[in-house]
Task: structure prediction
Amino acid sequence: MDRRIKGNIVTIIESMAKQSPPHHFEFSDPFWVLITTILSHRTKDSVTDKAARKLYERYHDCKGLSKAKYDDVLGIIDKVGFKREKAKRVIDAAEIICTKYSGKVPESIDELMSIRGIGRKTANVILSDALGIPAIAVDTHVQRICRRIGIAKNDNPFDTEKALMGIVPKNMWIGLNPMMVEFGKNICRPVGPKCHICSVREFCRYGQKRLNETAKK
Ligand code: SF4
Result:
């Protein structure tokens, strides 16, 4: 990784934060953050949040959701992608949290990842956003931004997570993912990134290349 990036990582993060609107969290309760993240895969935030909110209003907690009927849950999360699999997963997750963890969301990544439907990214979201335990979740936005800037050396999110953990001070881990998600939606977009107004363009390999090419035209 470029020494300039390592040496300026705090500036880079603070600059991104200035161009990122606040991230909306539908829930702060760890159990409902967990359910929301299971529902969120390949689904728009607004659809996910609405479905999770309806589940919450109907079942209230893990005990209620663990006893829910599959068809009822399926009807409630109707607009969510992969709804059949997810309906089963949220009921199963609720049952595991209730029976194995006495209603408390576990605080270790291994325990979280032992629940079906929870991968490494989701587990890190729950740890940092819901439980306040420093962790860095690498989703498609974080991966894309890190690849473009030159923090990520490949497309493997686990390698990117390790790279970030190696250079970002631990007191900046919590909140890093939601901030970068917003930066990725607003500035470093998948298609048509706004490099010309981006506050980190001086550190970004991809952005510099793009801007140079535009200048030559
Ligand atoms: S300069 Fe362009 S590619 Fe680089 S981080 Fe900014 S928007 Fe993304």
Notes: The mean pLDDT is 95. Residues 97 and 104 are 6 Å apart (CA to CA). The chain has 13 helices and no strands. The longest helix spans residues 83-99.
